[in-house]
Amino acid sequence: EKKPYPICCLGAGYVGVPTMAVICEKNPDIKATVFDVDEKRIAAWKSENLPFYEPDLEDIIKAKRDKSLFFSTDAEKSINEADLIYICVGTPTKTTGIGAGMGTNLTYIESTARMIAKYSKTNKIIVEKSTVPVQTSSYLEKVLKANAQPNVTFEILSNPEFMAEGSAIRDLRKPDRVVIGGKDTESAQKAIEILKKIYCWVDDKQIVTTNLFSSELIKLTANAFLAQRVSSINAIAEVAEVTGANVHEIARGIGLDSRIGPKFLGAGIGFGGSCFQKDLFNLIYLCEWFNLKEVVAYWKQVVIMNDHQRKRFVMKILNKMFNNITSKKISVLGFAFKKDTSDTRESPAIYISDYLIKEGAHLSIYDPKATKETILRDLQALTPNVNLEKQVTVVSNAQDSIKESHAILILTDWDEFKELNLAETYKIMEKPAYIFDGRNVIDQKEARKIGFETYSVGTPLIYNSD
Ligand code: NAD
Ligand code: UDX
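A: This is the predicted complex of the input protein with nicotinamide-adenine-dinucleotide.
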């Protein structure tokens, strides 16, 4: 029997685990070990209670765990046994020091390089999958070389990940493309061929090979473009509201232009998630570093627009509710940054809730997947000195959140909110009853007929004024 090809993944997060799961699903002759420094996270991956919700992931884990997919806290063994090592650790925005709030914290990336160098007794292919500033691959190489054991060499490839949360498994099984960056040397080209073989289920035409720095910059560019589309449509939403146009009609009207395309034209409360803002800052900081002033200003505007969109939503709430929400029960439906995930990182719901807490509102929050602990931790992080217990409750169904509330805020596009029985909902609320739809979920006309006061981002004045 053929010995399985041993690979390893450093970082058992939203990217590392789904990626390894699908690689194992598609390659019966690969053995993958996922290593993480976080022992609790590894224990959770080995248990019945996985660390986060991602559709279809649990099924693959159950099928492959302890057969070809392993979870480990043993760095030396995981690294030394593997021929190819994926780096999937976090690359968050720096929070202190020079470049705080903008630059990328490369601590975790560098720690993986030092671990790999320390424990590798044979040659390895290193696959940089984390999203990094351009040229990080050459820094990785420097650290690896400077610390390598005698006669051990490393070939570095860049292989950014484009999956989105909530559809990670679908995206990995059927990616639009796979990007692989490497040097123009014989050994690098050989390594590229090995990595291509791992993506055996992806059509050759969809594999884009580039140099290392292009590959790194492709990732930042893709996220910058996607985030820019969201900010662009949100900017038009504001114009639509004051002119009597409807942003959703506009999205359809422009989206059918094949040069523009229909996706990522959903106006709402702005983008959230761990990637868009972080990667925009990564790009902006890189441009600042090279003193590209106009480029910096250009991309900064995407973030400014996103912040503005959240604040504008809150202003609409205050305006409609006579600038008085102190002590009023407000129902917050949805806290995750998008549907089908338990992830709340950089969710617009955090910032919108925080504004309302500062206005004295009593929030009753319901999300189908985000946990109470996560929600309270996110909110407490913004107001460390406020006793949240007085103002925030997290409930386990929409009904409890809505009951006796003055207003409903829809902050995540979960499917179950589309199915709300509006007539029944109206009956159990205080009057006037408001719905503020941040995700274009509710049928506004129907809600108005029932008696609700409504606001929905980017829809005509005629619905939004009383
Ligand atoms: P995550 O925070 O979920 O996971 C990162 C993991 O790395 C953590 O569990 C952490 O404990 C671990 N870690 C830190 N140092 C380590 C070390 N030295 N060795 C082993 N493990 C270590 O992060 P994520 O969301 O999976 O993102 C990982 C990378 O992928 C980031 O660069 C991100 O920008 C990029 N990315 C994320 C997404 C996404 O949707 N989340 C999509 C594409 C790319
Ligand atoms: C993103 C990229 O899509 C993915 O390719 C990359 O690998 C990681 O970053 P993710 O952040 O998981 O993925 O989710 P995505 O679907 O891109 O949504 C990001 C945010 O934008 C969400 O808050 C979503 O609600 C918002 N969004 C998206 C809109 O407001 N309107 C849209 O039309 C699309």
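The first strand starts at residue 5 and ends at 10. The longest helix spans residues 212-243.
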